[in-house]
């Protein structure tokens, strides 16, 4: 029998009981026990998606979250403003599921811009429908866009995503390019069935002045099919790309940035590789997450979640919300531990967490 990660939290901290904060220094930011400070906020706005990528979603999609359990646009904006104003967050990224599935995404962006006028607001999307909605999102205050594109081979795309929508994704990419969004980043998950497509995808991205980043597949698929021995490693991908391009390692432009960069044929074009499994960067992680239901999730691979939605709707002050958020992040785990014998994937798949 196939096990499906239903997208429901394994446990949710009782909002009446704060996580333990023994030993935490009296600092305003989101520091954890290992000295890391979160400055990058990921906000999932929905669990629904227009694709069914095999490394993320089950074929039937994730169970729907009741509408009244989703954070509203004003609630999201309040948490964004609080995070930037009180907790040291510098960049906010809206994710899903697929965020374009929220009809009120423009309102979410606009209210968040009002609440955090100086923060960088970004969007991670599969690009379907972006060409139609991008002008309004930019007018609302969106700064940057990352678009997922794993292959430009139509047959392979349809097989991987279980949807024949490559043309719609490319239309979204072209709209972002024409709007002058820079840098325009493309994200590609490295999969065994699309490894041979990687050089063509990189050439396609370079020709369009897009910054491509390959991502090692992580054990976050809802179907629980991930196996380390079957995944494509960064080293294997570099070998395949090196057959067509001259690659020179350029390192990371920021110590906390997940992507290692390589110059392509001497530059200025680059390709990034996010080797989450084989070259873990947990020790430099600077992310905090809010799920679509309003829980703080300190790590993709930690099932423990701290509920802010109940506090939000119960009349909690910004100071109370901030203190609960700080406590949740203080207890962040050291790393994902994928290489350890007792590693167990989280109960929620990527589609429910909001990568």
Q: What would you note in describing this structure?
A:
The chain has 355 residues and is of the alpha/beta class. The protein has one domain (36-353): TIM Barrel, CATH 3.20.20.70. The protein has ten helices and 15 strands. Strands 1-15-14-13-4-5-6-7-8-9-12-11-10 form a 13-stranded mixed β-sheet. The longest helix has 14 residues, at 73-86.
Q: What's the rounded overall pLDDT mean?
A: 90
| Helix segment tally | 10
Q: Work out the number of β strands.
A: 15
Determine the structural class based on helices, strands and strand pairing.
alpha/beta
The assigned CATH architecture is: Alpha-Beta Barrel
Question: What's the overall geometry?
Answer: globular
Which key terms come to mind for this protein?
single chain, 355 residues, alpha/beta, 13-stranded mixed β-sheet, two-stranded antiparallel sheet, 15 strands
Summarize the structure.
This protein has 355 residues and is α/β, with parallel strands linked by helices. Helices cover 28% and strands 19% of the residues. The chain has ten helices and 15 strands.
Give the secondary structure arrangement, pairings included:
Layout: E1 11-13, E2 30-31, E3 37-38, E4 40-44, H1 73-86, E5 91-95, H2 105-115, E6 120-125, H3 130-140, E7 144-148, H4 154-161, H5 166-178, E8 185-190, H6 198-207, E9 211-216, H7 234-242, E10 247-251, E11 260-264, E12 270-274, E13 287-290, E14 295-297, E15 304-307, H8 309-313, H9 318-330, H10 350-353
